[in-house]
């Protein structure tokens, strides 16, 4: 889908989410309803033909993408603030700067498809259907969190999103397993399996996915640094899209993509990210191309209106995330299994027993 190629290449500069109220206030005679964008030719490996070099974007799509990216950006900035206020504890890996990857991928698949990623999962939790309130409450460990306050930053789940996985690269074989289930069930669905450049050198699931012709898209989100180490210092070859050691049929079987992106934060909140990035590098990735405005697809006021709505939504979610109660101790062991009768779980000593109640819906 060519929307994917366009969005990943330039939505960083468009930003996102639907603005129905604002859309109704303008007439389509005032603005261009759609525009054609030239996309630079992609580097290929063992593929005879790549994606087209032109893509059409409608004004509605552009505004939707803009609002979604703005939601993710403001949500991560608020998480940064709450972490520094000690309202969020433990590990916290932010996604700001990389939002276009998530928006582009989601524009090219269906919500009925499946997705699994590493621990930088807040953005994908939102695009998969989680609400800002649920995500923020999970970050603060509250009962209204998307994992009921038990998962925190790295372990968020919703329908067809399988985490949020804390072990580097461990989600890749799990994603292949999800794809195997899709093939076994014959449901015409696929799995997008994401990992970072830091995990690229230990991923070896491709060779299993290929002969089985699994419906999986392996995606390396290359943000140039793996836990603070630049890709040039970590790997002999930094062309991660070439790491598949098989010839793929892109229309029938697994395929590997590399998305070149950049994180505006360090590896995690414990890493400031400034000691190993040059000022010139940061300035380069912060420069933006205002595609929507330059092609007369939206007005400055229209985009500012979306920004106002987004800021209010984030503010309300943060208020909920800091006032919602924490889950009670008796819920500690709930939801270990799905749809099973209640059972006892051993505590920290032989005399302590906890009760586990399964999720049944």
UniProtKB/TrEMBL annotation:
Name under which the protein is recorded: Pyruvate dehydrogenase E1 subunit alpha 1a
Dehydrogenase E1 component domain location: 68-252
One GO BP: pyruvate decarboxylation to acetyl-CoA
InterPro entries (UniProt xref): DH_E1 (IPR001017), PDH_E1_Alpha_Subunit (IPR050642), THDP-binding (IPR029061)
One GO MF term attached to the UniProt entry: pyruvate dehydrogenase (acetyl-transferring) activity
Keyword Transit peptide: yes
Lineage: Eukaryota, Metazoa, Chordata, Craniata, Vertebrata
Keyword Oxidoreductase: yes
Keyword vocabulary terms for this entry: Oxidoreductase, Thiamine pyrophosphate, Transit peptide
Pfam (any one): E1_dh
Gene3D superfamilies per UniProt: 3.40.50.970
Co-factor(s): thiamine diphosphate
PANTHER family: PYRUVATE DEHYDROGENASE E1 COMPONENT SUBUNIT ALPHA, PYRUVATE DEHYDROGENASE E1 COMPONENT, ALPHA SUBUNIT BACTERIAL AND ORGANELLAR
């Amino acid at each position: 889908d060519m929307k994917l190629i366009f969005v990943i290449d330039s939505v960083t500069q468009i930003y996102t989410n639907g603005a129905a109220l604002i859309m109704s206030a303008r007439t389509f005679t005032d603005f261009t309803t759609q525009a054609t964008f030239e996309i630079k030719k992609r580097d290929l490996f063992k593929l005879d033909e790549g994606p087209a070099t032109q893509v059409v974007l409608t004004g509605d799509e552009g505004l939707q993408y803009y609002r979604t990216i703005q939601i993710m950006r403001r949500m991560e900035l608020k998480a940064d603030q709450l972490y520094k206020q000690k309202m969020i504890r433990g590990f916290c890996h932010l996604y700001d700067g990389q939002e276009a990857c998530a928006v582009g991928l989601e524009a090219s698949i269906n919500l009925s498809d499946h997705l699994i990623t590493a621990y930088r999962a807040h953005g994908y939790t939102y695009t998969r259907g989680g609400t800002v309130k649920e995500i923020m409450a999970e970050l603060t460990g509250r009962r209204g969190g998307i994992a009921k306050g038990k998962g925190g930053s790295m372990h968020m789940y919703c329908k067809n999103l399988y985490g949020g996985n804390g072990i580097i690269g461990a989600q890749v074989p799990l994603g292949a397993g999800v794809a195997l289930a899709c093939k076994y069930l014959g449901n015409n669905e696929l799995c997008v399996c994401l990992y970072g450049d830091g995990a690229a050198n230990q991923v070896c699931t491709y060779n299993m996915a290929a002969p089985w012709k699994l419906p999986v898209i392996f995606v390396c989100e290359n943000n140039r640094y793996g836990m603070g180490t630049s890709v040039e210092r970590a790997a002999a070859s930094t062309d991660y899209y070439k790491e598949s050691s098989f010839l793929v049929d892109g229309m029938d079987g697994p395929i590997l993509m590399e998305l070149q992106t950049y994180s505006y934060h360090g590896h995690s909140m414990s890493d400031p990210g400034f000691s190993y990035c040059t000022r010139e590098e940061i300035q380069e990735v912060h420069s933006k191309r205002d595609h929507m405005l330059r092609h007369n697809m939206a007005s400055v006021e229209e985009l500012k209106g979306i920004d106002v709505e987004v800021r209010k939504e984030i503010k309300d979610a943060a208020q909920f995330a800091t006032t919602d109660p924490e889950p009670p101790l008796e819920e500690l062991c709930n939801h270990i299994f799905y749809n099973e009768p209640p059972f006892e779980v051993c505590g920290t000593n032989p005399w302590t027993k906890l009760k586990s109640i399964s999720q049944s819906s």
